[in-house]
Amino acid sequence: MLDDQPVHPMYGRYSLRDWHLVNESVREILTAPELTKTVAQVTGADSLVLWRSKLFEKFPGDGAIDWHQEYGYFDGEEVGGHRPALYPFNPAGQWDWTMWMALTDVSEDDGVMEFVTGSQQTAYPKRMVKLPESGAYVDPRNRVRTREELLQRAANNSLLLDIDTRRVFEGVDTDAHSVDELFGVLDKHLDSLLAVVTEPFELAPGATRTTPMKAGEYIIFTERCMHRSRASLPDAKMRLALNARYTLGDTWVYPQRNTHDAFDGSNLNIRDHKCVQVHGDSFNPLNAYL
Fold it and tell me: How far apart are CA 280 and CA 43, in angstroms?
């Protein structure tokens, strides 16, 4: 998926999202009984559906994905989107959790995950900034070296996760510009997009916990917990991880799926999206299921 950048059969363009819906091997991992049983025990949920997954790559030298938490409805605001993905039956309670699985060993130097203990009890203040100043932005200069690769990846939307870059270079004589000049055009476009960031906050000594992991180990956490991935050192190893998001069975997933504008906050057409029932027997009839 990373090397060949295939078009996602469900979304019609390159994406690292939701390969569990079209790849049986990925689905078997994320619906394995020993895994989903643990998720159910940790969350106390009577019914759960798997509604989203994502493959994460972190190259040596990549910066931190800054502190963030999800207290809302997964509307893509970290990349400038405003399209809620989830409508819980009881929004006052907890209703969405993440399982983050290391596919390679992750040391303190390789972009380790870090959590603020107890932070799920508090919704931290946020503000809007230019997209490149947000915690979710990963500068593509660290992995794209040539003009040809920059143009190709921009055209097929594999340059920046969740950001539509297909028309960034429309009207630009790309042959007349160096790769650095073309990155300048990209920077100008990204500066016009707004994304959400968490306001700076004080951390008491010992308030955070890092989670070095061996390949195949995983951690389950509520998205309300403040978390980040630290920067990867220049001489670190490539870090690969897979996450899966599980929500309560009565949650309405992607309510816009059957409308004329079936795009989510990350610019994916989710008209054909489906949930996967992984625990229990009470599920929202408005969802589509695999």
Answer: 13
